[in-house]
Amino acid sequence: MNAAELREKNSTELREILGEVQQERFGLRIQHCTGQLEKVTRLKETRRIVARIMTILRERELAAK
Questions:
Q1: Rounded-to-integer distance, Cα 14 and Cα 57, Å
Q2: Average pLDDT value for the chain
Q3: DSSP readout, the chain?
Q4: Which of the four pLDDT bands, split at 50, 70 and 90, describes residue 25?
Q5: What are the residue boundaries of the structural domains of the chain, listed by start?
Q6: Per-residue pLDDT, 1
Q7: pTM of the model
Q8: Quick one: average pLDDT of 37-50?
Q9: CA angle 44, 15, 36 (to 5 degrees)
């Protein structure tokens, strides 16, 4: 997901996506620790998606003030 796609969604949808991505990231971290993860780059991708969503939510919070 890129930032443009995320900006089209409302805040509640972003929070739902954030929860899903964080759960996925946790599962990937477990797989990585046990040596079962094949695509290590997916960890980096999920970390960046979380950061994008949190940035967009923060921008909206500041704009509302």
A1: 8
A2: 96
A3: --HHHHHTS-HHHHHHHHHHHHHHHHHHHHHHHHT--S-THHHHHHHHHHHHHHHHHHHHHHHH-
A4: very high
A5: 3-64
A6: 80
A7: 0.90
A8: 96
A9: 35
| HSE (side-chain half, CA atoms, 13 Å) at 54 | 9
At position 39, the amino acid (one-letter code) is K
> How many residues make up the chain in this entry?
65
Instruction: Record the tokens describing residue 28, joined without a space.
Output: 């990937």
On the question of pLDDT at 32 being above 90, the answer is yes
CATH number for the segment(s) 3-64: 1.10.287.310
**Best CA proximity match to 21, nearest among 6, 35, 36, 33:** 6
Block residue for tokens 């923060």 = 58
Phi, psi for 19 (deg, rounded to 5): -60, -40
